[in-house]
Amino acid sequence: MPRTRKNKEDNWMPPRVYRGRSAFEWHPANGGSIRLCSLDAKQSEVWQQYEQAVAEYEKQETTNGLIQRFFGSADFRELSRTTQSDYRKYANKIIPVFGKMLPSTIQPVHIRKYMDIRGEKSKVQANREKAFFSRVFRWAFERGLVEKNPCQGVRQFKEKQRDVYISDDEYEAVYEHACPVIRAAMEISYRCAARQGDVLALTKSELREEGIYIQQGKTGVKQIKEWSAELHKAVKECDEAFGNNSIFVIHQKSGSRFTRDGFNTRWRKARALAREATGLALNFTFHDLKAKGISDYEGSSKEKQAFSGHKTERQVATYDRRIKVVKTISKANASEKND
């Protein structure tokens, strides 16, 4: 039964239709507003425009439908497995808020409000989810499915650059309490400055005579990391524990590849055991192992760049986190200068 309006003279109006500044407006339950006709229109005209608007609205695709279309697109299929997984997680946050709305009704102010509320819990995740949503709208805009990208012009939160450096003691603490899977992955990531996704995707066909062939999933850079005794040991870890029954270097007992979530469960367990045994905080991520590798690599910034596979020295600088030891001024230095 329709709710009685405050102004009894408006009881004739269709559900969720209100007087705007210059026109009658219908406000769908899923958000937004649709102009019907001017305020001087007859009641019959308002009802006619309302019924037409409802019919057109029900034909349109919701934001959830748009996101699902993106997930079925060639653009999405060409993304790395890790990025696909991330996007689906971001969608699980976006859809409950925007899923039932029409894409055309979403405005920058709605994105800003979402960011502010989500940012109270995690500014980083708010940024990632907004970037994903913008990617969907950009894809849709290029195909004529939407007329604008409401995420454009909405500022992201400023993120503090990570500066965590894993000490040798911290590394050894986790390594000693880890299962063979984690130990092997840690060594490959650290000694090759490789991302987690690239380590988990590594197949035995990429173990060359000269070293380990790695094509970075993020940058596409191709390298062969020369063998060392530690790397030879690392690539045998899983096979020695689970059997030589997989095409992957890092694999489960069944021989199948680890998902990121499954791997991270083991990583968190190893870190928790090490934390309990040593009392160390161990507040670092698996991705910080790549930074430790670059930081510990002996050489100039150019040489570190060649080792890491980054395109610029500036990118390398964000991973080079070891605190430098510099000389200080001594009395002897000062007296020599005065002489």
UniProtKB/TrEMBL annotation:
The keyword DNA-binding applies. Belongs to the 'phage' integrase family. Pfam families: Phage_int_M, Phage_integrase. It comes from the Bacteria. InterPro entries: CB, DNA_brk_join_enz, Integrase-like_cat_sf, Integrase_catalytic, Integrase_recombinase_N, Phage_int_M, Tyrosine_recombinase_XerCD. GO terms for molecular function: DNA binding. The keyword DNA-binding applies. Gene3D superfamilies: 1.10.150.130, Intergrase catalytic core (1.10.443.10). Residues 61-141 form the Core-binding (CB) domain. SUPFAM superfamilies: DNA breaking-rejoining enzymes. GO terms for biological process: DNA integration; DNA recombination. Coiled coil: none annotated. Keywords: DNA integration, DNA recombination, DNA-binding. This is Integrase.
